[in-house]
Amino acid sequence: MTQDVDIQVDWSRVVTDEVLKQRLPTLHLEDVSAIPFVDGVAGVEQYQHRARVRAHDGDLFASTTPPTSGYEDYCRETLRMGRVTEVLAEPVEGYPTQVAKACMRGRAFEQLCEVATAHGGLVLHPYMGHESVWELAEKIEESVGVPIYVYGPRPEALWVANDKARLTELVEGIDLGGVLAETLIHRDVASIAHALRDMASRHDRVALKRTRCASAMGNQVFASKELREMSSTEVDLLVENFLAHTQWGGDEDILVVEWIDWTSSPSSQLWVPALQDAHNEVRVDGLYEQLLVGEQGVFLGSMPSRLSESVEAQMREVSIRICQEFQKLGYVGRCSFDFVVDRQGRARLTECNGRWGGTSSPMYLVDRSVKAEARPAYIAQDFVHEDLVGMRFEELLERIGEHVFDVKTQQGRFLFYNVGPLEKKGKFDVVSLGDSHEDALHGVKTVLPQLLGLDS
Asked: How many domains does the chain have?
């Protein structure tokens, strides 16, 4: 189907099997700056430390914020993740999430150049392979004259996956049996408003979507009955308010979509190898049920899927077919798809996340920590409580005690990641392991609050 997406693939610097055989050190960086509105997420400047979950012995990871006291010891001693080097970069003024740009300057850049020179090369493994990551790779290579590779998609392929309008156009060219919700794409107020009224004549609820936002931050849902009672002028004003609220610059498509009445919101987690690798089959690493809150469906966490075999089969087929198209465009690395299951029991695609994220990161953490033939039941999610503001991570571990999962003994229930926001925001991410879904849920809903003294 790729004839509709005109991309000349540049394979230079893309990680392949041949590159991996060189066993070069890898720099992991969690740069989320290419996603709109993330700066408004509480504690987001600390999210960049999630990159530590992917780092192995001898690797590096970059951040613009200092590490949380005690977390590196926890990763080394309790989770047995090996010794890594943190590259602490001076943040770009006013933009602490721009990790890649920060690494292009000062001591951080010198440190990366020294590592690349000493090992004859370097691999960058980003959260998502946006333009700044590739610029960093190019700058290091030009500075020291050794090859620098990126374990991720070229930006041209990245934005086919992460732009909902371009994804819709690509999927419509594949015979996937009506997996998409009805979608109209426009770029001016009058056309968007007309499409919204038109869509409202056929569906109970409809929505406006920005194309590159994450976790429902660019969505607004409307009851069609209310839209049908509005005048054209009122609907125009409603669209204008949405565009103003989401800081639309006029140069990006807006999606008008059928808002599907759903019973579950699962996701698929995939790995896409380079097309030229000998074993280049797209791999489904997991199917998950997402934990969402509010009408907009804001992401809270996830758990391994307990859905029917037919729904899971639909998700696998759709996800693999689309990733095969991405692969032809130069896509490499982590990719995931969000679905909803409609009232007829069909899996319907809602969006793609061409990056690591809130489901794949804890999945990777569980897989490298829990030594078992099959992935255990677990729930991964944010945990936030105002009474935790001011708590140090070491104190949190003390309170959890023997319930902290230990990789060496394979005993315990809880694994912790993304703990940077704890002290200032009372917020951290946790994996609750269990013998069953119900047991994992009991852990995060009852056991964890009690251990933290929050049960009263």
From this structure: 4
* Short-list 264, 213, 25, 4, CA closest to 125: 25
Distance from C-alpha of 389 to C-alpha of 391, rounded to nearest angstrom: 6
51 in a domain, yes or no?
yes
- Output b/e per residue, 7-42; b: 16+ Cβ within 10 A: eebeeebbbbeebbeeebbbbbbbbbbbbbbbeebe
Residue 5 has pLDDT above 60, yes or no: no
Are residues 169 and 322 in contact, defined by beta-carbon separation less than 8 angstroms? no
- Domain termination site, one of 211, 235, 258: 258
Residue 293 is predicted with a pLDDT of 66
Looking at per-residue confidence, does 178 or 64 come out higher? 64
Task: List, for residues 61-106, the tens digit of each pLDDT value.
Answer: 999 999 999 999 999 999 999 999 999 999 998 888 999 999 999 9
Separation between Cα atoms, residue 260 and residue 213, nearest integer Å: 19
Range of the domain at 425: 370-451
Helix/strand/coil for 142: helix
Whether residues 9 and 144 share a domain: the answer is yes
* Bridge partner residues of 134 (DSSP): none
Q: Is residue 64 part of a domain?
A: yes
